[in-house]
Every structure is written in structure tokens, then in C-alpha cells.
């Protein structure tokens, strides 16, 4: 049997994949987002640059996967009140944005996403999808309890919460205010409640 | 009398200053923030790069001045209610962030500020100083009317409003929701009111 050249169906080596992702996550913490190049990631992972480019279109997509794609098993909070649920959701966002790799990449990564027409359209979905799913469940319960109206604008609330956390943590927050999640949750809950 | 070399006290040529600032503002709209280099600005302005570096430490400081430093004569709103005043303030932020040059530079410029230890500490003051002054006056009136408590956390509210507008407009908003300012103002006003 003659050997066949790699075909489109040839499975990718999973060890390369995790070596690359791990190298990217290490480098952004060590040298920051701007200084982390595909070449440096390739060298750290012990692969060629083409091995990286076969899997990811470019640096933003790779860094996003390395830093923000986690097996997200966190249950949706169910504290009994909207303010309580929002506090837990927000503390989760604060912790996620403040983790070393996320804090290192967020402003630069968002800027690269915003500068790419294809990626710009994916900002809200890529960065906020898990949070939006959980917020929808929290809102359903709040509607059932009569706390908020069914037509409460979920995207506006999500943008407000994510934007506030990004601004406070991602841009200025060496030491994020420990009361941030509770205060912001209280203000937003009171702001959208109808009873 | 022999000619003397330029001394530290020699006044800078104001025409160079405005030519440089104007060139930067044009270029970021034409080619975006990332592609706007000091060299390109110098060429457009008809000056040498050293002329630029004598006045500004680097690109972020220059672009910030070119895009965000305006003679800000907008009066602080006084509509009679907190929600009304916040709506006007927010619409001002929406308009400012959505203007072509600001929209072109905001994500990348914020990323460069965040990546520089000196500039990072100035993000809140540089970008939000005029808004904070106006918000403080709006809050004073709201306290006097008994709408909010005197200890309402002004930085948290400002971060929330600016973050929400930045996220909605700066990152995703080709066509910003025309109701954004009013909705966000209503939610935040209701969220912080005590009566």
C-alpha cells in the first residue's frame, strides 16, 4: 500500500492542539498580548507556524480559544431573588475578567476583534454567550416570580453588566472593588424590577 | 549678533501643532488606528517625526488629543429629574463614542493605554473627566431633590454608564440602538433612586 499525502479528512494531532493552546496561555501572561506572536507560540509549543495556521485563522482566534474557552460547568445561580442571582453572575464575570490571562489580553484582544469585520460581528456572541444563556434563565425565573416584565431587554442588561465589569476590571482594576458585583447587581436589579 | 541654537524656552510653532493633530484625526478615519503611524502622521502634516516626538511621548497620547480633546462647552443638563439628566448625558456619550474618529480609535486606543503602566492609571481621568464633572453636578441636584442619597457611588455609576456605552457603541454598534440612552438612563436612575 503506497502512503497517501495528508487529506482534508486526516485528524489533527490533539497533543499539538493542546500544546499550542497551552503555549499561548503561558506567553500572554509572561509577555502580554501585543508581544505574543504566532512565531513565539509555535516555538514554545514545539511546532511549526503552519501547524498553527492550519487550525486558526490568526492570533486573535487562537488567543481567544486559549484564554476564554473553558469547560463551563458553573451552574446558573438560583438564590431566590433577581439581585442575588445577578450578584453571583457578576462575581463570575469579575473573576473571569480578572484572572491573569484574561486580564493580560482583554483590551488588546477586543481591539483586534473590533478591527476585523468578521470578528467584530462575533464579539457579543463569542465573549458573552455563556453569560447570556445564564442571564436568560435568571430572567425567566424573575419573570415567573413577577420581579421583572417579560419584555425586559436582555441584551441591553447584558451589555451594561459586561461593559461595566470590563471597564472597571479590564481597564483600571488592579485591585477590583470587592463590592463591585453586589453594588452593580443591586442597582441593575432595582433598575429593571417592576414591583 | 551670532545666531543661537533653539533653547528649551523656544515657543513651539502652533501651526505645526494643529497640522499634526489634524493629520492624526484624518488618518485614523482613513486607515484605522492600528495603521496610523507617527511616520504617516508626520508625512501628512509636513513635519519631521522628531517634531512630533518633541510634543507627544507617543502615538496613544497624540491620537487621544487629536480625537478626544475638544473645547467642551456643552452645558450640564438640567431637565428636572435624574432620569432626564442621565438621558442627556448618555446621549452625549453615545454621540461622542460614535463619531467617526472616536469609533475608529476607541478599542485600539484603550488597549494601548491599558498596556502602558503610566497611561493605564490615567484611563479613567483622561477619558471620563468631563463626564465625571457633569455627573457630579447632576448628582448634587438629585441629592437636593431627595432623589438619591448623598453617598451614591459616583465612580461606579460612571464606570457602568461609560462601560455600557463603550461596549454597545465602541465594540458592536454600527447602528447604535436609538433607545440606548433613554433605556440605560431609566434603568440606572431607578436603580439608584431612594424614593
From TrEMBL, chains A, B:
Q: Which InterPro entries match?
A: Homeodomain-like_sf, HTH-type_TetR-like_transc_reg, HTH_TetR, Tet_transcr_reg_TetR-rel_C_sf, TetR_C
By what name is this protein known? TetR/AcrR family transcriptional regulator
Enumerate the SUPFAM superfamilies for this protein: Homeodomain-like, Tetracyclin repressor-like, C-terminal domain
Out of the domains of life, which is the source? Answer: Bacteria
What is a single Pfam family found in this protein's UniProt entry? TetR_N
List membrane-spanning regions: none
**Can you give the residue ranges of the HTH tetR-type domain?**
14-74
Q: Which UniProt keywords apply?
A: DNA-binding, Transcription, Transcription regulation
Question: Which sequence positions fall in the DNA-binding region?
Answer: 37-56
Amino acid at each position: 500500500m503506497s502512503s497517501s499525502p495528508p487529506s482534508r479528512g486526516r485528524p489533527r494531532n490533539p497533543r499539538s492542539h493542546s500544546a499550542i493552546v497551552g503555549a499561548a496561555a503561558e506567553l500572554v501572561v509572561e509577555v502580554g498580548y501585543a508581544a505574543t506572536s504566532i512565531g513565539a507560540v509555535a516555538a514554545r509549543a514545539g511546532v511549526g507556524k503552519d501547524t498553527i495556521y492550519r487550525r486558526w485563522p490568526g492570533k486573535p482566534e487562537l488567543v481567544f480559544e486559549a484564554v476564554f474557552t473553558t469547560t463551563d460547568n458553573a451552574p446558573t445561580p438560583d438564590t431566590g431573588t433577581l439581585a442575588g442571582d445577578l450578584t453571583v453572575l457578576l462575581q463570575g464575570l469579575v473573576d473571569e475578567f480578572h484572572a491573569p490571562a484574561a486580564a493580560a489580553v482583554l483590551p488588546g484582544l477586543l481591539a483586534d476583534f473590533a478591527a476585523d469585520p468578521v470578528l467584530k460581528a462575533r464579539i457579543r456572541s463569542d465573549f458573552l454567550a455563556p453569560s447570556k444563556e445564564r442571564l436568560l434563565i435568571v430572567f425567566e425565573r424573575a419573570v415567573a416570580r413577577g420581579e421583572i416584565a417579560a419584555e425586559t431587554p436582555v441584551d441591553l442588561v447584558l451589555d451594561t453588566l459586561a461593559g461595566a465589569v470590563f471597564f472597571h476590571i479590564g481597564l483600571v482594576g488592579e485591585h477590583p472593588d470587592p463590592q463591585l458585583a453586589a453594588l452593580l447587581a443591586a442597582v441593575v436589579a432595582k433598575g429593571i424590577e417592576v414591583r
